[in-house]
Amino acid sequence: MLLNLSNHPSTQWSPEQREAAEQQFGRIKDLTFPAIDPQWHLDRVRLEAEKYYIQIRKEASLQVITVHLMGEMTFCFQLLEMLQEAGIPTVASTTQRIVTEKEGLKTVRFEFAGFRAYF
User: Fold this and answer.
1) What pLDDT is recorded for position 40?
2) Angle between the 73-86 and 42-62 helix axes, to the nearest 10 degrees?
3) Alpha helix locations (H) across 26-72?
């Protein structure tokens, strides 16, 4: 199973990303990404990461999981360290950045390219 902990619920993913996730990991379960206040001290961010770590460990005790972790960088880094120490596989989604410029308007589009392991 893939636990999706990102700002993008899997229901909003492209068909290509959903299909890749289901083929690689089976079922997808979304976890709501926390709102990390930019004014928080790192200790507060770590406490939030610890709450999610406990929740993820409970899921991992019931079934084989991989965590899709994308979002606020300091939170992700803190949580990633905990998940790595516990041996829980963690991946990021990779994208192709496509930029078009027309009449002074720059449009950026991201196309899903795959999942990449953090370790």
Assistant:
1) 97
2) 40
3) 42-62
